[in-house]
């Protein structure tokens, strides 16, 4: 009898003291993954009743495939990283948990002021209508990298407008051996949809826009699209810009190109490629018609398939991730942006900003940051625009044909979205 009671007591003790487990799928590898593991470890040590298990799935593509397969098989984690278009697709299956009730919970919620302290662009990206389905996580903005040593030697100021960018690109491009091909290019760009979208936003255009009925419609067939395509074609025709599909940090480090635009997440690679060679810096992207600039990165979503106690535990961790100190720690140690203004007042951020004058420059653009459309077919639409951009840039098709084809394809995907 004593042995039986002891066994029962042990079973009850294990049951009573068992921690609520939160499974977190993510795509943060390398140094970013190490920082995330440190945050998870600190959270777990602060929680007597919750344990977060961070599971690295692989790159973003692997994570997306895993989520889609998990949704079909009914095998999802408690929470996961997700781009907003992934969330839009998963929302169609009704498996993404609305967060409003946790945010408004009198015991574990956050105040209206705390939520509004999150940068507006990031809040909007997590919200569908009046329902919040995510919290922002690893966010970055596009910025202009430049060879400060070369610009200073040439007496060129950092371009602040599109016309200044074009002028600087011409002045800085050099054909040293006079073979008709530049040895140094003043500017470089990637032949990607991201590049096209950056400049389209700067010009005041959109790939799609919201109609009066609240549904997105194609906006690619526009004067702004034509001006952007003509701008890139002129750069190449005048031989003042270098273009390639891959990342530009290596040829930047070699001194082959002197200016280019990419996300702040590329900073570690720039530092590595330029080390001991020259001084580099970055500045806000040049103004065209607007100061608009897209941002990149994922959010954290919760799945409705989890048990209620797991959801409440997951919310505690999500709330922890966007706390001022934690998002500041994440930003300082990874190069991503903090997601809240209050993070800029934390000791860790102030100390880092004091020793690193480049740290706060991207935040000059934060109020002009624009989110991608919250469409489940956004990936497909991006592919259409990528084809349009590349086919025109590479001379495979004339401008009007490229635009008309893209417009028709985008309309087809939007019809699928709203059928």
Automatic annotation (TrEMBL):
> What keywords tag this UniProt record?
Signal, Transport
Q: Where in the cell is it found?
A: Cell envelope
Please provide, in alphabetical order, the Gene Ontology terms of the cellular component aspect for this entry.
cell envelope
Cite the CDD domains for this sequence: PBP2_UgpB (cd14748)
Keyword Cell membrane assigned: no
Q: Which family does it belong to?
A: Belongs to the bacterial solute-binding protein 1 family.
Know the name of this protein? Sugar ABC transporter substrate-binding protein
Organism, as annotated: Fervidobacterium thailandense
């Amino acid at each position: 009898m004593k042995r039986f009671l002891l066994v029962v007591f042990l079973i009850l003790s294990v049951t009573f003291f068992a921690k609520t487990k939160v499974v977190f799928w993510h795509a943060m590898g390398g140094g970013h993954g190490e920082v995330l593991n440190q945050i998870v470890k600190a959270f777990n040590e602060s929680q007597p009743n919750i344990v977060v298990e961070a599971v690295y799935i692989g790159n973003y593509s692997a994570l997306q495939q895993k989520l889609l397969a998990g949704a079909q098989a009914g095998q999802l984690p408690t929470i996961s990283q997700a781009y907003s278009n992934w969330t839009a697709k998963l929302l169609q299956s009704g498996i993404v948990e609305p967060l409003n009730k946790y945010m408004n919970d009198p015991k574990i919620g956050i105040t209206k002021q705390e939520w509004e302290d999150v940068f507006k662009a990031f809040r909007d990206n997590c919200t569908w209508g009046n329902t919040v389905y995510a919290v922002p996580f690893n966010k970055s903005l596009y910025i202009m990298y430049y060879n400060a040593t070369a610009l200073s030697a040439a007496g060129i100021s950092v371009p602040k407008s599109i016309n200044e960018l074009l002028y600087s690109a011409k002045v800085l491009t050099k054909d040293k051996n006079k073979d008709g091909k530049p040895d140094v290019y003043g500017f470089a760009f990637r032949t990607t949809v991201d590049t096209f979208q950056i400049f389209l936003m700067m010009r005041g255009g959109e790939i799609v826009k919201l109609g009066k009925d609240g549904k997105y419609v194609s906006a690619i067939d526009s004067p702004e699209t034509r001006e952007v395509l003509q701008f890139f074609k002129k750069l190449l025709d005048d031989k003042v810009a270098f273009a390639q599909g891959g990342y530009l940090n290596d040829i930047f480090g070699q001194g082959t190109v002197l200016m280019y635009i990419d996300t702040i997440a590329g900073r570690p690679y720039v530092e590595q490629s330029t080390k001991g060679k020259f001084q580099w810096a970055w500045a806000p992207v040049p103004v065209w018609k607007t100061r608009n600039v897209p941002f990149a990165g994922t959010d954290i979503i919760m799945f409705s398939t989890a048990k209620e106690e797991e959801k409440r535990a997951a919310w505690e961790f999500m709330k922890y991730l966007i706390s001022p100190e934690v998002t500041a720690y994440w930003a300082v140690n990874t190069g991503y942006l903090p997601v809240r203004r209050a993070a800029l007042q934390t000791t860790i951020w102030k100390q880092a900003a004091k020793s690193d004058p480049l740290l706060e420059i991207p935040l000059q653009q934060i109020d002009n940051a624009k989110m991608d459309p919250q469409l489940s077919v956004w990936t497909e639409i991006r592919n259409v625009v990528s084809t349009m951009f590349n086919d025109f840039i590479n001379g495979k098709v004339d401008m009007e044909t490229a635009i008309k084809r893209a417009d028709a394809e985008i309309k087809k995907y939007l019809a699928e979205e709203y059928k």
